[in-house]
Design brief:
5% of the residues lie in helices and 51% in strands. It is mainly beta and 138 residues long.
Length: 138
């Protein structure tokens, strides 16, 4: 489900304890801040870019999406993203979290996948008619 559409990824900020990530998004037309997404209880962060020369953030990413992972497909999904921690029984280690969410951001130069126990939209400013702010989660 889309949280934000038609946005630029401006910056990523890790908390000092490494357990949360704030994702700052800006309007692609004006460059104004449109929202901050906080991912908490993060246990997987896969960031990739294809920057060359002077390329850098901020860059267009289109949509910021989330999916609630279900127990039946969790392990396959984590393996696909390259999660590498195993428990003493040889299975994938699963953090102590009731639910897991996949946050996905992808553009022509950047891709970001985060698996976290929770996330919150800290701010959202509708700055143009194309932008959509996140719906209320159930």
């Amino acid at each position: 489900m889309a949280l934000f559409t038609d946005v630029n990824l401006d910056k990523l900020v890790f908390s000092s304890d490494g357990k949360s990530i704030d994702i700052y998004l800006i309007d692609m037309y004006e460059g104004a801040s449109i929202g901050t997404l906080r991912c908490s209880s993060v246990f997987l962060c896969n960031y990739q870019n294809s920057f060359v020369d002077d390329d850098c953030l901020a860059c267009y990413v289109g949509e910021v999406e989330y999916t609630k992972l279900d127990n039946s497909s969790e392990n396959e999904f984590l393996k696909k993203l390259g999660y590498g921690f195993y428990n003493k029984d040889g299975g994938l280690y699963r953090p102590e979290s009731n639910e897991l969410f996949h946050i996905h951001i992808e553009g022509s130069e950047v891709m970001l996948d985060i698996i976290c126990g929770s996330f919150d939209v800290l701010s959202c400013a509708k700055t143009n008619p194309v932008l959509s702010c996140p719906p209320v989660r159930d």
